[in-house]
Amino acid sequence: MYDLHIHTKFSKDSLSEPHKIIEIAKKKGLSGVAITDHNSMQGYISAREAARKLDIDLIPGEEIMTNRGEILAYLISEEVKPHRSPEETIEEIREQGGISAIAHPFRGKSIRLGSIVRLVDFIEVTNGRSSRQENEKALKLATEYGKKGIGGSDAHTLREVGQVITVGGLRPERIIARECPYRYLFIIYSSIVKLIRL
Ligand SMILES: [Zn+2]
Questions:
Q1: Residue 123 phi, psi (nearest 5)
Q2: Which of 7, 61, 126, 194 is 20 to 30 A from residue 73's alpha carbon, by CA?
Q3: Sign of the dihedral through C-alpha 151, 138, 16, 92
Q4: Which residues, chain by chain, have CB under 5 Å from ion ligand 1?
Q5: What does pTM read for this prediction?
């Protein structure tokens, strides 16, 4: 049981301490997590010790901003630079021996999907911060292209960790999503605190 999309304080829009995320994952009975900070692997690096101690399988990750939407990278060894084309970004992930996924393909300014879908390994079909309609469209897209779906909470707060679980992790079998009725309040809260700190 894995949560494959989690942000830490190394993302501009989150306050979560990396070791706390690991503690919560353990408490919630997860076997592993992927830390996927925006354009950074610092959160992953900071969480490693806690993951080792608590025996949580910590997957190195990053959520990379491209010039056409966001790409999730897993099992990369180095940070992938943002603001390039999705094609170049996916290529670099592959060169590093990593795994790529389109993050929340239908949220907001969505990626112009087209050929990119064919290039990635997975589509994020359940994102804890996307609407039901956005997730349904993503699932349809994955089915159409014969791509496997993965899911993650997209946690920006500690409470969201484990809200969406991919059974099997990067060998996805099925996805379990739990509703968090207060999630929008937490989203607003962490944005305000960050603004005040800046
Ligand atoms: Zn995210």
A1: -115, 135
A2: 194
A3: positive
A4: 63, 154
A5: 0.88
